[in-house]
Amino acid sequence: MTEVLQTVTKKAILLGNEAIARGIVEAGCLVATAYPGTPSSEILPAVAKYADEMNSPMAVEWGVNEKVAFETAMGASFAGARSCAVMKQVGLNVAADPFMSVASYEMNGALLLVVADDPGPHSSQTEQDSRYFAMFAKIPCFDPASAAEAKEMVFDAFALSERFKIMTMLRPTVRVDHCRQDVELGELQKQPGTVRFEKDASRWVSLPAKVRINHPKLNKKIADIREAFETEFGKYNYEVPPKKEGVLGIVASGVSFSLVTDILKGMGREDVGILKIGTPQPLPVKMVASFMEKYPKVLFLEETYPVMEMQMPDRTKILGRWNGVVPSAGELLPEVIAEIVSKVLGPGAPEAPETEMLKSAIQELGITPRKPMLCPGCPHRASFFAIRQAIPNAINPSDIGCYSLGVNQKGLDTVVAMGASVTVSSGLSLVSRITDDKRPIVATIGDSTFFHMGLLGLVNAVYNKHPLVLAVLDNSITAMTGGQANPAVGTKLRKGDEGRVVDIEQACRGCGVSHVVTLNAYDVAAGKAAVKEAWEYAKEHEEPAVIIFRYPCMLLRHEQAKIRVMVDQEKCVGCKFCINFFNCPGLVFNDAANKAVIDDRFCVSCGVCRSVCPHGAIVEASGEGR
Amino acid sequence: MQYIIVGIGGQGILFSSKVLGKIAIDRGLSVAGSEVHGMAQRGGSVISHFKIGEYKSPLVQVGEADILVAFDQNEAVRNLQYLRKGGTLVVNVHDEKAFENASLRSYIEARGIDVRSLKGYDLLKKHMGGNFLFLNVLLLGAMSGAGIGDFSYDEVAKAVKDLSPSKFEEDNMKVLELGREATHKK
Q: Which of A266, A356, A610, B115 is deepest in the core (most CB within 10 A)?
């Protein structure tokens, strides 16, 4: 990609997240930070890649959590650097504290927050709409409809931030983040202004007296930005008029605009006008109102909450979420939009008669969607099995990551938010103090989640003397989001930039945990013994104990011994214990034979399942046999 | 031309849309597609949308795909509604009996779907030591070798070569050829 510097414009097929990253680098951003989270995870690694290729002087860093990442970028912007923080929607919940406060600051360098939403959701605990957060904080928000537009908006979001001295938000949704589209590439620009932190307590120290001055100023800024969105941003906010007399108007933002455009084209409708909005917060209300005057009824399509709809003072003509025309949950998929549009325009096209045949086929063949599950050979599967078998009656709070899929191993009882494994355990330990429920508590958390928010909960448990076992499932990577580094890994993103490993065991000891054991996660017997021992210690000393189950993630594709296994069909009694508690894609149940068998399409020959069968039926295979 | 590529997370389906995308952009065509990342990638059902031409949105509507490429036959059946009438299914089959299901056969017939199947697992077991990560290249070889879609076998071979990490290049070329030889009309 080095030839990029020799040509002014060049097209490339980029993932939406790569397009955003490219925009961040080209715009001369000097500090970019993030915590990985689907659908935003690919942005920061791509920023580092482009920064290396284009010789940008910028700093690119993972923060240990979104609040840390956000505040790091924020600090740099105080010094005048164009700065950017990237996260997923639930990450903004973590960063909400500084986000809300800094919204009213008179900023120096640009501060851009890229927050990726996940309508569906595909990989999240919530379906929240971050544009509401922009409204809550009273900052402007750009809502891209395509990868190319997302890239373009990055430049404008930086410029708007500098012009109004206010933080700005770019809110792509998953379909923009993970679309692949041809995008024009540009050159590296130099960021405007000088970069140096100037001491000014009246500006950078937030006290109530200061807020009383800043809040009215913020109101004025957002009113001025609304006016700017009415008139100056025609490239993002524009009408696509109908060719014939319009029977329906559609106000659409984000990928819903792209979808409905293709759908209307496919339907051959030339009597529907569209107003495309790329700046839904603050909404250019006058522009929308004058569009609405032209049509007898107007449909609002946006994801996932009615942000535009709610800003209109008169909603009587609006078909949207307030009157149930548009569903209030779930992704606006093409078929969902097609159905809404068909209904609104009159009787929809009848369903093809053969659809029933396909439904019958799917039912008769017993085909169901495959649920996500831990990879074959995943060390977490071994850890969950050991934890569950060591103390079968324990309560197992868990956390956010690949290992949330441990639900398939019946290895976890709660999952809420990053770090909540430890704190839910604390709550349960308080309950056991005052009730007869003395069940052991063994929680699980990943290495990245441990540093993200688990550490604080652990300090709290040490301080308050909560007896619980915390099992850190350390696969030495942030796996669910695609393999990003974290403090347990120690590497950094830009070439030549070195980090330092923060040792989990040392960190636990430093927090005051006395019983810390590290073991090989593949060693099920050792894992079982360690869990029992740790709980005894925790109970006796009334304090948390930690076990670190360590083994690298399968996605890192490290070399390991291949131990081919087979199920001895004589010994297998068909009890399904291995299916219920180990649940590996490589180990399936043959209903006809009432026996477990290895599915060599998925088995990676890790050999762990040999320690699973209570009847000793899973054994190493000799020769070619299975 | 609109493609849907389905399979199970971990089968390497993203590589297929990368290859098609590279060919399209080398020809100067516009493309749009959508991929699955994150939790859904972990062994669950995954779907990639891929469109070549003047489209605004990255998603294919139900009933409009020209070609459905399925790394797994169950995923093929589950997503068959994406194919337009007269569309083509390229499918990796592990249990042929399923295609004898009367309802499925009548759907395929009613929609005039052209089914091209290959036994990818058997082929890779026989020729590639059972390394099923080559399924993506095998299916690309089968598809282009049978003249399905916009792209010639040579174009696909060049793109696969360009996008392959050097240590897989030779094997990928071998598997592509296997795919070309293997396609048969079902």
A: B115
pLDDT digits (tens, 9 = 90+) for B140-161: 999 999 999 888 999 999 999 9
Question: Which domains are assigned to chain A?
Answer: 2-191+201-231 (3.40.50.970), 238-345 (3.40.50.920), 379-556 (3.40.50.970), 565-620 (3.30.70.20)
- Give the residue among A248, A254, A417 at the shortest CA–CA distance from A331: A254
Alpha carbon of residue A620 to chain centroid: 39
Task: Provide the pLDDT for residue A475.
Answer: 93
CA-nearest of A470, A453, A449, A483 to A375 is A483
Nearest to B106 among A357, A405, A585 (CB): A357
pLDDT digits (tens, 9 = 90+) for A132-179: 999 999 999 999 999 999 999 999 999 999 999 999 999 999 999 999
Of A466, A474, A479, A480, nearest to A395 (Cα)? A466
Worst-scoring range by mean pLDDT, A82-86, A201-205, B129-133, B172-176?
Answer: B129-133
More confident residue, A136 or B165: A136
Ramachandran angles phi, psi of A267, nearest 5°? -80, -10
Positive or negative: CA dihedral A132, A133, A137, A140: negative
Q: In sequence order, what DSSP letters do the residues of A384-432 get, joined into one string? A: HHHHHHHSTT-B-B--SSGGGGGGGGT--SB--STTHHHHHHHHHHHHH
Contact across the interface for A372 and B44, Cβ inside 8 Å: yes
> What is the overall mean pLDDT for chain B?
90
Residues A394 and A386 sit within 8 Å (Cβ to Cβ) = no
Average pLDDT for chain A: 94
- Tell me whether strands A618-620 and A565-567 are parallel, antiparallel or unpaired: antiparallel
User: For A559-606, what is each residue's pLDDT tens digit?
Assistant: 899 999 999 999 999 999 999 999 999 999 999 999 999 998 889 999
pLDDT value, residue A190? 87
DSSP secondary structure code for residue A324 in this structure: T
Using pLDDT thresholds of 50, 70 and 90, give the confidence band for residue A10: confident
Nearest Cα residue to A253 out of A225, A232, A233, A223? A233
Pair of tokens at residue B18: 């990368």
Measured CA to CA in angstroms, residue A277 lies from A225, A283, A301 at distances of 15, 8, 10
Q: What residues of B are in contact with residue A357 (Cβ under 8 Å)? A: 103-104, 106-107, 110
Q: Are A301 and A260 contacting, i.e. CB atoms less than 8 angstroms apart?
A: yes
CA B133 to mean position of chain CA atoms: 14
Give pLDDT tens digits for A483-520: 899 999 999 999 999 999 999 999 999 999 999 999 99
- A15 vs B contacts (CB less than 8 Å): 35
**Non-local CB neighbours of A513 within 8 Å, separated by 6+ positions:** A458, A462, A543, A544, A545, A546
Residues 6+ apart with CB under 8 A from B105: B99
Nearest CA in chain A to B94: A601
CA-based nearest residue to B94, from B70, B65, B128? B70
Interface confidence: ipTM more than 0.85: yes
Q: Which domains does chain B have, with CATH numbers?
A: 2-185 (3.40.920.10)
CA distance B186 to B182: 12
Name the residue in chain A with its Cα closest to that of B104. A361
The answer to whether residue A182 neighbours chain B at the CB level (below 8 Å) is: yes
Q: What is the chain A residue with the closest CA to B20?
A: A13
DSSP helix, strand, coil percent of chain B (3-state; round to 5): 50, 25, 30
* Closest CB to A374 among B42, B63, B107: B42
Structure tokens at A429: 């330990």
Predicted confidence band at B25 (pLDDT cuts at 50, 70, 90)?
Answer: confident
Q: Measure the CA angle with vertex B40, ends A67 and A519; round to 5°.
A: 70
On the question of pLDDT at B185 being above 50, the answer is no
